[in-house]
């Protein structure tokens, strides 16, 4: 069973509410450092931020609808990197995936990849709950072709829902071992985190990280939580 420390190192500690303030983001960073999460994930309008060097900064792009034109997404990603982002979490055009226009999905991702080249990590949010299995497969394949580093289940804002074990398993099977899979949206308990990791996720998007980690082995006074 993973410990709280091990789980924390997989978490993007996330605050993407539209009403979030700079003070909220500052508190998020303090909490992330205390909990030992891998990163914080914030909106681009919150940049720049001051964070400990060991804490990565992830920033969303084309969020949450994905309906921005590719050049706008690319400009948003480039600006975020210029302001200090280590990772970009972009949203695809979900309608293009529903129509099986995978070449268009690939081009959209490739535009952001070109604007935010390595070593910036590019995660591609596919909104898996809104897609059929064949659409998940086609979209993940497009992300791999476009040079993405991760595929990610969800924004957490879509009414269809968030991450599921089935979607994570299918995404991992599609992208293979060399591309990351991030489970995000509705991951609130240690049990859910363990299920997602067992299904193939190697990153978790979590807003309630403290509560989740409190249920992990090794948490409590001995682990500093």
Automatic annotation (TrEMBL):
Q: From what superkingdom does this record's organism come?
A: Bacteria
Transmembrane residues, as ranges? none
- GO CC annotation terms, alphabetical: cytoplasm
Keywords attached to this Swiss-Prot or TrEMBL record, sorted alphabetically, are:
Cytoplasm, Lyase, Schiff base
Q: Which Pfam families match?
A: DeoC
Keyword Cytoplasm belongs to the record: yes
**Pathway it belongs to?**
Carbohydrate degradation; 2-deoxy-D-ribose 1-phosphate degradation; D-glyceraldehyde 3-phosphate and acetaldehyde from 2-deoxy-alpha-D-ribose 1-phosphate: step 2/2
Q: State its Enzyme Commission number(s).
A: 4.1.2.4
Protein's UniProt keywords contain Cytoplasm: yes
Principal localisation: cytoplasm
Q: Where in the cell is it found?
A: Cytoplasm
Enumerate the InterPro entries for this protein.
Aldolase_TIM, DeoC, DeoC/FbaB/LacD_aldolase, DeoC_typeI
Instruction: Name a single GO biological process.
Output: 2-deoxyribose 1-phosphate catabolic process
A Gene Ontology molecular function term for this protein is: deoxyribose-phosphate aldolase activity
What reaction is this protein's catalytic activity? Answer: 2-deoxy-D-ribose 5-phosphate = D-glyceraldehyde 3-phosphate + acetaldehyde
Enzyme active site: 89, 152, 182
Quote the SMART domains the UniProt record gives. Answer: DeoC
Q: Which HAMAP family match?
A: DeoC_type1
Protein's job: Catalyzes a reversible aldol reaction between acetaldehyde and D-glyceraldehyde 3-phosphate to generate 2-deoxy-D-ribose 5-phosphate.
Q: Which family does it belong to?
A: Belongs to the DeoC/FbaB aldolase family. DeoC type 1 subfamily.
- Protein name, entry field: Deoxyribose-phosphate aldolase
- Species, as recorded: Nocardioides luteus
Which gene carries the instructions for this protein?
deoC
